[in-house]
Amino acid sequence: PAAPEFYKAQGDALVRLDQMDEAAKAYRTALAQNPKYADALVGLGSVLLRQAKRVEAIQALDQARAAAPDNPKVILAVSILRAADGKFDEAIRELEALPRQAWTTRVILTLGELYVRARRFENAVQILGPLAQRLPKSVPLRYLLGHATLGANRLEQAIGEFREVLKLAPDNPLARYSLGVAYVPSGQPLEAL
Description:
This protein is an all-alpha fold. The protein contains 12 helices and no strands. Helix 4 packs antiparallel against helix 5, helix 5 runs antiparallel to helix 6 and helix 8 runs antiparallel to helix 9.
């Protein structure tokens, strides 16, 4: 039989193909060979969460946490699960506790989104702004930064972010709507039309 890493990679590929049942089988095959394989447990937990199998997802992520308590992927997955339960402050604390060198783009985006959901807009702007300078063509990042700056009442910056999103993705209706929302309090209501 193939190594557990093979089955974990197979599970990852099946997730990208939106074949969740097959992905779960691949992750379980990896775990049959190595029950403490944290990355496979995270993959399985993520699939189970997408399949609305919350109890099983929590069990898989608890096992991943026990196997690799300091693994950033595990902490990110646990944080996402907490956010799905509406526990934004707990999810934020999980990610903020990671060492800065473990703050991948995905961690920063997730933390930025959690800050926005928790209405901690200035915190979101502080971490998303530098990332936007490094990744200026990232539509999801610029859109999230637009909402963070809008929430922080930085209206001109929000307008600039939503305009940039529309340059990158001209048919994005959410960005167009958000731009209109930003224009109204800025004293430019006609621009919103």
